[in-house]
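Reproducibility note. Readers wishing to regenerate the assembly model reported in the main text can use the exact inputs given here. Chain order matters: entities are listed in the order in which they were concatenated for prediction.
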Amino acid sequence: MAAEMKPAADSQALVEVENVTKYFPITAGVFSRHVADVKAVDGVSFSIKSGETLGLVGESGSGKTTIGRCILRLLEPTSGAIRFDGVDITKISPKLMRAKRKEMQVIFQDPYASLNPRMTVGDIIAEPLQIHKLAKGPEVDAKVNDLLRTVGLSPYHANRYPHEFSGGQRQRIGVARALAVSPKFIVADEPVSALDVSIQAQVVNLLQDLQQQFGLTYLFIAHDLSVVRHISDRVAVMYVGKIMELSDRDALYERPLHPYTQSLLSAIPIPDPRAEARRERIILEGDIPSPVRPPSGCRFHTRCPIAYERCKVEVPELLNYGDHFVACHKVQELGGAQPSIKPGAAPIGSKSP
Amino acid sequence: MTSLPAKVVDTEDLTPHVSMLTDIWRRFRRNRLALVGLALVFVLLLAAALAPLLSHYDPNAIDTSIMGTPQTPSLHHLFGTDDDGRDYFARMLFGARISLEVGFSAMIIAVTFGTFYGAVSGYFGGWVDSVLMRFVDMMLSFPTFFLILAVEALTNNFSIIVIMLVIGLLSWMSVARLVRGQILSLRERDYISAAKAVGAPDGRIMWRHLLPNALAPVIVAATLAIGNNILTESALSYLGLGVQPPTASWGNSLQKALDPDVLGAPWLTFIPGLLIVITVMAFNLVGEGLRDALDPRSSGGRA
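Running the prediction on these inputs yields the following structure tokens for the assembly.
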């Protein structure tokens, strides 16, 4: 039976996210009257062990990027705690935070927007070194050259401007900038989503190599389930601001428990025509609900093929079934067994025949 | 997933290295009118800089022998003389100095102040932005020219410095709005987030990341502002609230040329009028050309 254990209570965790919410207020009128909130992240908890990669998947608007930015404190969470190396970084002074930034870095999705077009690649990579005074004078150039080589570029690229590079090359520059401060932890926010498939593999492999070489810990945010499977040790699935399922990669892909995860995985094409022909796809109806007015109870109930009355009223907790966390009433009733979902079954409240 | 060798040293050939300035010049050159404007601006700057060398007449020297009877343009007096017997070519050259001095100085004042103001407003946002921008709205709700007139009339001081300051300090609002808009859109870019994630202080984000990227439209606005300032100065001088005689300026020459006594000397009106038109047009053409050259997106329509 489900143990009342939060997935965040872990002593060897590098990053612990505990009950974090991030609401963006919507205001109207001359006096900026507060009319509603976009509940981008609503009570999310997880932890990332030192040296592992946690994959975070979800549709656009599920809040996965927001949680990444909260961990980096590029956004201030509305409530909750984020512990990095045991220190709650939501409560420390800006000065201490600045020092902490040496230990956590970020790689962005769009390599065309993440590099300052008016700075040379050398200056872009040197900036973190200068800010944290990690190198002086000629040392800076030497370190920049080292970093360029580490990510598979050449030192002669340092004098060029970002617009002279291809998408994949730019993403490598972004990786070099992130590595400049020798961080422990990197949030990779959809680092390959904007790249060609052939280039994706190169960048993913580069990230894996660097992880081994420097003992990095990753939060790998993506919507491509195949890439996440390739790189992650554990995977969390988000839906409208909440985590639906979180478990070991193999467990999640081989035996997904949450109906949402099952439907996501059923959408991955299989590179074998015969298997592909037999693949049963679970097609969800409707769109992802607005995070301004998320559905009552379980946020997935409006699209869930096996939802029942309880799902409409009661928010399911993220419960632990042997290191496999799932937030689903049906799974709880089945004691952690995989509920079967019949393809095409109409969700409750659905008007279509 | 395929397992490619991860350590590919990227030797993929890059496009030929072209510096930003070369690139801008290449696009600017394509616009013929802008080139004409640039040439005119150069001629004007040279004429103003070399004024004492280009004419051996003192612009304020009165030739009593021809006083009262303006001389028509001739080889002796290129632009003729006015009814005080002063060489009009020399007066126009020194008038160009005044116009350009006022045009550039007032622009520098307006752009410096406007950029700073707009950058602070856009970067800090929130109530700071609201307060600062409401003040801009208030300033803009006055008709600028009448405001300048009123200030000039009140200070009753018509030295060039005061004219520059008044024009500069009453024309920064559009620059402030422009810069604020730029900063507002730029500060959401990922490279700003990256700079924040690395711990860059506000000043560094402003100077190294935001302002250099916000500069292009400011340069355009600054060029157009020079033309505008020259026009304002001429109008003020024309109304007698700008550069005071005997110091020569295009505006006060125009005013003097309307004297009923010199109605028979139309060149006294045409020459300063034409100079004002040509100068303002030249700066506007350069400004338009820069707008296209600095913004690669807008160059698509040009053949």
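We highlight two features of this model. The two ends of chain A are 37 Å apart (CA to CA). The first strand of chain A starts at residue 13 and ends at 28.
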